Amino acid sequence: MSKLLLIGAGKMATAIAGGLVKSGLFAPAELLAYDVNPVAAADFTKATGVECAITGCFELAAAADRVLLAIKPQTLAKALTGLTEALAGKTVLSIVAGVPLQRLSELTGSRKVIRVMPNTPAQIERGASAIAAAPDVDEAELKLAEKIFGAVGIVMLVDEHNLDAVTALSGSGPAYVFEFIQALADGGVASGLPRAAATELAVQTVIGAAEMVRATGLHPTALKDQVTSPGGTTIRALEVLEDRAFAGTVIQAVRAACARSEELGRS
């Protein structure tokens, strides 16, 4: 029986474990979990049905075939202290933000390391994850990593140097969309709609528009043109967005997030 150990039992680890069990990729008995926080451990077990220990990390790591690191970057080195013997030679997956493959290899003692950048919609199985693997990771382990994160959304393979751009686009992207939904709803309220109705309409509009892009395969500009009648309301609104450099602002926001991710990776 192949076993996967999750070190860290926060929201993302809980989402991943839940997705793995729900998809049938792993049975609860094939998952191990560890977190120093008793509350997080209890919440994880309640949500997933997987027992989460608060002691004995070395023994769990030794018993596991693979390990998934799901902890904060600032606690990573401390959390891995004394575990290199148990981790050596095993595939180690990491969703720890900003920690390069080389550093992961140094901290774990394994050359088979995989970096993954998921995003928060993974919590509802609508995530977008990008995977970058070290050269020593074989095809079978890479395919399994794709299946693990495929249980909570879509998966894309990228070169490690592109992970900063992924972080800026899909990693931070949900926050940009939440901001847009809030602004769209505020516009509805300013125009006379009740708050609840404005929010529901804004949310469904974003969901529907995104699904149209995927379902039709059309370029967003083509779909935008379908909504935009000559001299109508939509073109007037788009004129305001253009005047305020909406597209350019979004582009610069993503580039700023990418630059910050690169900066954090060097620190």
Automatic annotation (TrEMBL):
Which InterPro entries does the annotation name?
6-PGluconate_DH-like_C_sf, NAD(P)-bd_dom_sf, P5C_Rdtase_cat_N, P5CR-like_CS, P5CR_dimer, Pyrroline-COOH_reductase
Location in the cell reads: Cytoplasm
Pyrroline-5-carboxylate reductase dimerisation domain boundaries: 160-264
Which residues belong to any copy of the Pyrroline-5-carboxylate reductase catalytic N-terminal domain?
5-98
Q: Which keywords belong to this entry?
A: Amino-acid biosynthesis, Cytoplasm, NADP, Oxidoreductase, Proline biosynthesis
Name the domain of life this protein comes from: Bacteria
Binding site residues for NADP(+): 7-12, 70-73
**What Pfam family is a match, any one?**
F420_oxidored
**Single biological process term from Gene Ontology:** L-proline biosynthetic process
Catalytic reaction list: L-proline + NAD(+) = (S)-1-pyrroline-5-carboxylate + NADH + 2 H(+); L-proline + NADP(+) = (S)-1-pyrroline-5-carboxylate + NADPH + 2 H(+)
Cytoplasm as a keyword? Answer: yes
Q: Name one GO molecular function term.
A: pyrroline-5-carboxylate reductase activity
Gene3D superfamilies recorded for this chain?
Answer: NAD(P)-binding Rossmann-like Domain (3.40.50.720), ProC C-terminal domain-like (1.10.3730.10)
> What EC numbers are recorded for this enzyme?
1.5.1.2
GO cellular component annotations, sorted alphabetically? cytoplasm
The pathway it acts in is: Amino-acid biosynthesis; L-proline biosynthesis; L-proline from L-glutamate 5-semialdehyde: step 1/1
Q: What does this protein do?
A: Catalyzes the reduction of 1-pyrroline-5-carboxylate (PCA) to L-proline.
What is the similarity comment for this entry? Belongs to the pyrroline-5-carboxylate reductase family.
Protein's recorded name: Pyrroline-5-carboxylate reductase
Record the organism.
Victivallis lenta
Query: What lineage does the source organism belong to?
Result: Bacteria, Pseudomonadati, Lentisphaerota, Lentisphaeria, Victivallales
